[in-house]
Specification:
The chain is 0% helix and 56% strand. By secondary structure, it is mainly β. The strands form two sheets. Strands 2, 4, 5, 6, 9, 10 and 11 form a seven-stranded mixed beta sheet that branches. A four-stranded antiparallel beta sheet has the order 1-3-8-7, with no helix packed on it. A hairpin with a 4-residue loop joins strand 7 and strand 8. The protein is globular and about 40 Å long. The chain starts with a strand and ends with a strand. The relative contact order is 0.32.
């Protein structure tokens, strides 16, 4: 079974930084797309950033462009999301996803993590 385990969420003040990690197991890695999505209370899930595992093609949502950076460590089967200059609007549950077929909107993926909460206070 494919398992995705996120960590690194927490509570920070506006302007602060967090780095999310997602360790992936049970997946035979091809050039799959991996991604971070988020969902705030009362809002639809949205794609934050995506990366292809072997070719490093990257998508970043306009709402986080210039502040969030997606990366990966293939030797550790781990996906990261570095989040800088956090804003209260970034408050959401953040989900790691593997084998993503759609990075935009609410997204589509074969595998999802359980989520990690990010709370940004003003």
């Amino acid at each position: 079974d494919v398992q995705l385990v996120e960590s690194g969420g927490g509570s920070v003040q506006a302007g602060g930084s967090l780095r999310l990690s997602c360790t992936i197991s049970g997946l035979s890695f091809g050039d799959y797309t991996m991604a971070w999505f988020r969902q705030a209370p009362g809002k639809e899930r949205e794609g934050v950033s995506c990366i292809t595992w072997r070719t490093d093609n990257i998508y970043v949502a306009d709402s986080v462009k210039g502040r969030f950076t997606i990366s990966k460590d293939t030797s550790k089967n781990t996906l990261y999301l570095q989040m800088n200059s956090l804003e209260p609007e970034d408050t959401a549950m953040y989900y790691c996803a593997a084998v993503v077929s759609d990075c935009t909107g609410s997204g589509r993926a074969n595998n999802w993590g359980q989520g990690t909460q990010v709370t940004v206070s003003s």
